[in-house]
Design brief:
eight-stranded mixed β-sheet; binds 2-acetamido-2-deoxy-beta-D-glucopyranose; alpha+beta; 2 domains; 22% helix; 452 residues; 19 strands; four-stranded antiparallel β-sheet
């Protein structure tokens, strides 16, 4: 009989080889708190804003603001977004069976849907057909009833809303054949090292024309799993999870963190740099960046009735800031949003003495609802023009902002895009490795008692 240790090693080597096709970053979790996360989603066809929102069961306004799309356009929810447009989908990330994931999305099957068309097209590779069939206990994936309600498990991570102890939000990004890690890093204003650390990667290699995101050799995540839970069932589950998952990579997006009390229903709100969030039943709009990562909230301009947004004991409204130059520095008083508590908008007056008076509030540039996808924006960051009139001004004593919403800046193009051309995702990979892999898992499972 061969040495079990060698056999095990061989088996593992084989398994690593086989599953080198796919990788997804997994975040173990233990509490039941949910957190904010983003999905990187590429439209498979022209869809209305409201249709994209209903695909993920999210608020259309939240979808628009997360992408810094101007919501003041008439009938913006019915605007048709172009196929291949890349969007950031804000989702709530929960903790299911010890792993961070989003399970709040359901999909109602339509005629001619198949599990793989739902996984690869409709959800842009964010889920695999295997995950769909597993999550919905579908014995025969070739038979789908029309109108069947499917749970769509989606990948997400939060890592405590921070990265290198700075606020951060995590985007689950499906790696495309045209991607390189460096380009992804550049696209999201992060560094290669950070991206590698976050994803526990030992190598940046993404081969030309390769549909696979991350090569397994040197993958620290995998090694961590190996060393920590080698002989546990958890290991098997992890490996299985990795095998069946897609080539997802994780991007960290610098964000503005809120500090609402725990009792607030929007506790933990995180707004990615360069975008907006709508909260308090469409009453409050918060923005982040571009110059600093301080959350700034003000009344939203949507036609909804809202409770008072005035700070107690002052005549300041939410978002108003008064500055007064004194000999000791700049006396800044602001009326800040403090979350939705007991169904009402909580505000907090916060005085502070700062060395210098702040300039006018700057807003992330807004873009017009996109109608086309530029072909040359595959790697490039958003070609969004800067909001004019936001230059730093040395106001000695003023109340800012004096205007409501930031002005609209006409867009040169979409937020970002993905080149045309068929993009094969991991789930399209030949079924053979998966099959062989299942055997390998069985083998490993079988070997455990021997090794022990
Ligand atoms: C999570 O972040 C908070 C502050 O944002 C910190 O107090 C806490 O210790 C962190 N928890 C972990 C597990 O890192
Ligand atoms: C925020 O995003 C802008 C571009 O939108 C970028 O120039 C800036 O460096 C980012 N800020 C941080 C702190 O990441
Ligand atoms: C700062 O301004 C607030 C309100 O304008 C005022 O009540 C407070 O006394 C000022 N503090 C200082 C140190 O000037
Ligand atoms: C919320 O309302 C409940 C009763 O309606 C009250 O007991 C509680 O103190 C309120 N909480 C806050 C933070 O105002
Ligand atoms: C305070 O903020 C409100 C809402 O944004 C705005 O309408 C008002 O003009 C601001 N007040 C002053 C004095 O600027």
């Amino acid at each position: 009989m061969p040495n079990p240790k060698h056999l095990l090693q061989g088996t593992l080597f084989l398994s690593l080889l086989l599953q080198a096709v796919c990788k997804s970053t997994i975040e173990p979790c233990s509490n039941s708190d949910s957190c904010n996360a983003l999905l990187g989603y590429t439209l498979y066809t022209d869809l209305k804003v409201s249709e994209v929102a209903s695909l993920f069961q999210i608020d259309p306004i939240a979808l628009l603001t997360a992408n810094a799309i101007d919501i003041s356009y008439p009938d913006v929810e019915h605007h048709i977004l172009p196929s291949k447009l890349f969007l950031k989908i804000p989702i709530s990330c929960s903790c299911v069976d010890g792993i961070r994931k989003s399970v709040a999305t359901n999909y109602k099957t339509r005629p001619s849907d198949t599990l793989s068309s739902i996984a690869d097209s409709v959800y842009g590779g964010l889920v695999s057909s295997d995950q769909l069939s597993e999550a919905n206990s579908i014995p025969d994936p070739s038979v789908l009833d029309v109108g069947q309600n499917l749970v769509v498990p989606l990948p997400c991570t939060c890592f405590n809303g921070s990265d290198n102890s700075l606020p951060a939000i995590y985007l689950s990004y499906v790696v495309r054949p045209v991607d390189s890690l460096a380009a992804i890093a550049a696209r999201y204003f992060t560094t290669l090292t950070d991206l590698m650390n976050v994803n526990a990667m030992g190598s940046t290699a993404i081969n030309d024309g390769d549909i696979l995101a991350v090569p397994i050799p040197g993958n620290d995540l995998m090694l961590a799993f190996l060393s920590f839970s080698f002989f546990s069932l958890q290991f098997i589950i992890s490996v299985q999870f990795l095998t069946l998952s897609l080539s997802l990579s994780l991007s960290r997006v610098a964000a503005c963190a809120s500090s609402f009390p725990k009792s607030a229903s929007d506790f933990g709100l995180l707004v990615p740099n360069g975008s907006y969030a709508i909260t308090a039943g469409h009453c409050v709009q918060c923005s982040c960046g571009p110059r600093n990562l301080n959350l700034y909230c003000m009344p939203a301009s949507l036609a909804v009735s809202c409770s008072s947004m005035q700070c107690k004991g002052s005549n300041l409204m939410l978002g108003n800031v008064t500055v007064q130059q004194t000999s000791g520095g700049c006396n800044v008083t602001s009326c800040n949003y403090d979350g939705i508590v007991n169904g009402t908008i909580a505000t907090m007056l916060s005085p502070s003495l700062q060395p210098r008076c702040p300039g006018l509030q700057e807003f992330p540039p807004l873009v017009a609802p996109p109608t086309t996808v530029a072909k040359d924006t595959v790697f490039g960051p958003a070609p969004a023009p800067l909001f004019d009139g936001a230059g730093p001004t040395s106001s000695i004593s003023s109340v800012v902002p004096s205007t409501g919403l930031p002005g609209f800046s006409p867009a040169n193009g979409p937020i970002s895009g993905i080149s045309s051309g068929a993009s094969a995702t991991c789930s399209l990979v030949k079924p053979l490795p998966t099959l062989a892999y299942a055997l390998v898992i069985l083998l490993v499972k079988f070997m455990i008692p021997v090794a022990l």
